[in-house]
Specification:
Number of domains: 1
Number of helices: 3
Distance between the termini: 103 Å
CATH superfamily: Nucleic acid-binding proteins
Radius of gyration: 29 Å
Strand order of the largest sheet: 3-4-2-1-6-7-5
Strand content: 25-35%
CATH class: Mainly Beta
Order of helices and strands: EEHHEEEHEE
CATH topology: OB fold (Dihydrolipoamide Acetyltransferase, E2P)
Largest sheet: 7 strands, mixed
Number of strands: 7
Helix content: 10-25%
């Protein structure tokens, strides 16, 4: 089974592609991440491939303890990069975020901008910053994207800063089409405004007439 999984026609949510997300770790260092949630139907074939790869990685790393460790990861939301949409709850409304209900998601990221893919399928030269940024800025929460991701196994840290987990690199991303943006629309407050009153322009004073200099008099 390939280490790289291709997800076609999924929706981006909370994308940090043009500008990275910056977070402080427990040790006080800054963590920079270009990432996005990838939201899809539970029966999306790419999600099934991801879960198969998860099981394969667990078996390779944990041998006979694979199932037990997978269960531990499943029961710890912070240990995994995937989940049911109902798990993504807004701290403001206490309801699942827009677009997540009834779906599943995979969070994928990396510390550098992913490879940007043009509409014709050709990759952008990473050295061409302007072209990469132009494509990255097209990606908004709710749009359709195609992505290449690579799941990887997180080993338990010796200092117990983190345990076993499953994570996912975002290798490449392609804008695949517009869709309804996620989140609340901006409130319409146009009805509280009136027309700007037109003010009469102040009269312009005529410039004073200056007398002719003596050498011009008599001409």
């Amino acid at each position: 089974m390939s280490e790289i999984i291709y997800l076609s026609n999924v929706r981006a949510s909370f994308p940090h592609i043009a500008e990275p997300q910056r977070q402080r770790t427990a040790s006080g260092t800054e963590r920079v991440s270009y990432n996005t949630d990838l939201v899809m139907e539970p029966d999306h074939p790419g999600f099934a491939q991801f879960m198969q790869r998860f099981g394969q990685l667990a078996l390779e790393r944990m041998k006979e303890n694979a199932q037990a460790v997978m269960n531990m990861i499943q029961n710890d939301r912070k240990a995994r990069c995937y989940g049911r949409g109902e798990e993504k709850v807004s701290k403001k409304t206490f309801q699942p975020y827009d677009g997540y209900m009834g779906m599943v998601f995979i969070t994928a990221g990396r510390d550098t901008m992913p490879q940007m893919i043009q509409p014709d399928g050709t990759p952008v030269d990473p050295a061409n910053t302007m072209a990469s940024m132009a494509l990255a800025r097209k990606i908004y929460g709710g749009c359709r994207v195609n992505v290449a991701i690579k799941p990887w196994w997180q080993n338990a840290n010796a200092e117990k800063q983190y345990g076993y987990g499953i994570r996912c690199d975002l290798l490449a991303i392609q804008f695949a089409g517009d869709d309804k943006p996620f989140g609340e629309a901006a409130p319409d407050v146009s009805n509280v405004f009136g027309a700007v009153a037109t003010q009469a322009a102040a009269p312009v004073a005529a410039a004073p007439v200056m007398p002719l200099p003596p050498f011009m008099m008599g001409q």
